[in-house]
Amino acid sequence: MRIPLNWSPRSWLLLMGALPILAALFYPQPVMASEGLDSGDTAWMLTATALVLFMTIPGLSLFYGGLVRAKNVLSVLMQCFALTCVMTLVWVFWGYSLAFDTSGMEAGVVNLSSFVGGFGKAFLAGVGIEALTGTVPETVFVTFQMTFAIITPALIAGAFAERMKFSAMMLFMILWSTAVYAPICHMTWSGDGAYFWDKGILDFAGGTVVHINAGIAALVAALVIGKRRGYPGIIPPHSLVITVIGASMLWVGWFGFNAGSALAANGAAGMAMLVTQIATATAAVTWMLVEWLQHGKPSVLGVVTGAVAGLVAITPASGSVGPMGALAIGVVSGVACFWGATSLKHKLGYDDSLDAFGVHGVGGIVGALMTGAFAAESLGGQGLAEGMTIASQLWAQLVGVVITILYAGIVSFVLLKIVDSVIGLRVAEDDEERGLDISLHNEQGYYSEV
Amino acid sequence: MKLLKCIVRPNALEQVKEGLSALGIMGMTVSEVKGFGRQKGHKEVYRGAEYNIDFTPKLKIEVVVGDSIAARAIDAIKEAANTGNIGDGKVFVLPVEDVVRIRTGETGEAAI
Questions:
Q1: A301 and B47 in contact by Cβ < 8 A?
Q2: Which of A24, A319, A414, B65 has a Cα at 20 to 30 A from B83?
Q3: Which domain, by its residues, includes A106?
Q4: What is the gyration radius of the CA atoms in chain B, in angstroms?
């Protein structure tokens, strides 16, 4: 081809400028990320992560905050906010590694790695910009799972509200996240070789990992730390307005919790969102009706607590049940958690201030068990795993529930006792009387001249 | 001079104020209080925990008046706050030793 030597420099420049543009038009650009990354999945998971963080700050903060007395409102907000920050660090330092490091894990093999991960991913070693978990960047997976590790301890705070020392709570939660949350998370979700995973125990978004775990720890904490001064007596919520706002935020955020656990923007996520909505609404209506019958009037606190009960119960089931299963789970959890938060608590006399066990513990157990049945195609679910029957799946679910209850219960008790002996769990009597906001934080939630 | 300490229903405030200003009584102090006498309280229920609350919200209106106008002031308050139902409230009449206007230092009835 003859080079046109008689072209002016300007013409050459124009040509050189046009070539890349022509190339871009005719030759598709290579994908700027590694093979396997799906931008749809990634976009959704980024969003889901934000939604789940929103569940803690300010969703749960407000839900719990409104339920305590005005003199303690800041202590609740402080616990949730500070836990968000500290659990982030714990997760980054060693939590993620203990939960999701898979070295030494082999399908069907039970070794130490079946119960807890190693330190291979401590300080997020290996989690670079190109690293992937499935079809999303590992960075997104790390942060998404982090929001779960954040909300679980925050849930426990509901049991010892209005009387626990902030320092003791922080220390306990750092230990608990390490010794209880990470292992249970590992056993359930880290993949082949994980103890619960290999048994085929179904827990889509954390019925066991989050709710039973937190619920049992909450019950133990309420028993160890003892009742509030004046309990049982007149200790009404100081602002149900705030509580309802918080509950609403929890509902919306929970779409990130359940649908996000699909780790993809696909049919599973869509179904998870749908069944979440159905179960929540059903549980709320159920609670409302039960309360209407029992007390003669439906209450706002009842309807939002019912909704939370449904949200909790559908959590483990959201990846495997269908709409009818969600309906059933909603009805049963509405009744069961109503019983757990009212009759059970008052009969046994423990002071689970904000019903962390009554709603999350009971709801988590109900949901985990019902998942076993309603995952089956015959009951409208996505279908049981190969080789599983409803009976064998129910048994697997029961095994998971029992082991979690025992492990979380025993280790939580031990950790509480350790913290109690080192710095003491409970505030002094007159500090409790004056209110934690002033006693622990030198602040008032609602300033008044007098 | 008399101090009239009136416990009335919250929604009686406007009428009491009007009734008193019709007599030329322009100042008063109001606080939100809770109390009970013969009126029954109410029930509150939070997650199955039933509380029987005896105390009902009321308003306490405090006004100092000259002796000459005291009887008419009490009548005006009675008329304004009366609904005929239990819980209408009470007026407590107390003697006042002295009154001082802070800005000018005036004392006695001139300071009311």
A1: yes
A2: B65
A3: 39-441
A4: 17
AA identity, residue A91: W
Chosen for mutation from A63, A64, A299 (greatest number of chain B CBs closer than 10 Å) is: A299
Nearest-Cα residue of chain B relative to residue A337: B47
Residue A337 inside a domain? The answer is yes
What length is written for chain B?
A: 112
Give tens-digit pLDDT for A218-273.
Answer: 999 999 999 999 998 879 999 999 999 999 999 999 999 999 999 999 999 999 99
CATH number of the domain enclosing A152: 1.10.3430.10
Q: Do A341 and B45 touch (CB under 8 A)?
A: no
Nearest to A229 by CA among A432, A438, A65: A432
A123 contacts: CB under 8 Å, gap ≥ 6: A92, A93, A94
**Number of domains, chain B:** 1
Q: Which domain holds residue B78?
A: 2-111
Q: How confident is the model over A333-356, as pLDDT tens digits?
A: 999 999 999 999 988 889 999 999
Sort A222 into a burial class: Cβ within 10 Å, 0-12 / 13-18 / 19+: buried
**Looking at residue B28, which CATH number applies to its domain?**
3.30.70.120
Q: How far is B49 from chain A (nearest CA, A)?
A: 7
* Residue A19, in any domain of the structure: no
Mutation target among B34, B43, B44, B46 for the A interface, most CBs of A within 10 A = B46
CA distance A305 to chain B (A): 9
ipTM summary value: 0.81
Q: Identify the DSSP state of A160.
A: S
Helices H, strands E: what count in chain A? 19, 2
Answer for the pair B61, B13: CB distance below 8 angstroms, yes or no.
Answer: yes
Amino acid, single-letter form, for residue A278: I
Q: How far apart are CA A22 and CA A291, in angstroms?
A: 71
Condensed to tens digits (0 to 9), the pLDDT of residues A165-181 reads 999 999 999 999 999 99
Number of domains in chain A: 1
Cβ proximity of A77 and A61 under 8 Å: yes
Q: Is the pLDDT of residue A31 over 50?
A: no
Residue A449 lies in a domain: no
Chain B positions touching A297 (Cβ under 8 A) are 45
Burial class (CB in 10 A: 0-12, 13-18, 19+), A194: buried
A134 within domain boundaries = yes
Could B47 and A343 be called an inter-chain contact, meaning their C-beta atoms sit closer than 8 Å? Answer: no
* B49-53 and B42-46 beta bridge pairing: antiparallel
